[in-house]
Fold 50S ribosomal protein L35.
Amino acid sequence: MRKGKRKSVKAVVKRFKRLDWGGWIRTLSGRHKKLWRKKANRKRRLRQHVLVNATQATLLDKMVTKYWKRPRHYINDPYAPYHTREEFVYTRRRALK
């Protein structure tokens, strides 16, 4: 018999990254496929990450456990600039001057 414990969906952990302020980012699909066929501006767009909307972020929060929601600190983290969101009033850490 199974336990009644929540488990994280492995596909969410693999495909998405949770930022410290609660947002989720992902890459665009097809970013490594048939690059010889795609124009330069499309390849540049595919290299970038996109934020998911609020409904998707709520759903992703339900699909992972508390372990994956904790902030992680890595050396030379490429996502370090995106972990703060000072321009938005609800996620601001420092007070307005």
User: Anything to note?
Assistant: The longest strand covers residues 24-27. Residues 10-82 form one domain. Strands lie at 17-18, 24-27, 49-51.
